[in-house]
Structure to design on (106 residues):
């Protein structure tokens, strides 16, 4: 858990606490879950207001936020009501990175 990249305002202790309160063992989603991503996977693309514009309206703020994602976690091979929230960013060289912002009961 310590190796997960977190958003600046996320606390590792809060995430650990949320996971420790949930009974069972976290498992990978079954293959069928990937066929039904719209049921447990939500993606939002932020609008341009999330970015600062520099001279000649060129986006200058990096890394820039590309997606905000909600993904349901699985326990004992069953979809749980725990949801992982994370943000996907793109850096200046075009590489993407994921940062966890929260885990909570939906």
């Amino acid at each position: 858990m310590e190796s997960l990249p977190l958003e600046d305002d996320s606390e590792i202790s809060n995430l650990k606490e949320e996971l420790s309160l949930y009974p069972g063992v976290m498992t990978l989603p079954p293959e069928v879950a990937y066929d039904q991503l719209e049921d447990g996977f939500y993606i939002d693309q932020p609008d341009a207001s999330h970015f600062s514009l520099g001279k000649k309206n060129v986006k200058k703020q990096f890394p820039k936020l590309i997606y905000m994602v909600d993904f349901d976690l699985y326990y004992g091979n069953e979809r749980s009501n725990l949801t992982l929230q994370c943000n996907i960013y793109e850096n200046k060289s075009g590489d993407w990175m994921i940062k966890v912002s929260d885990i909570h009961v939906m």
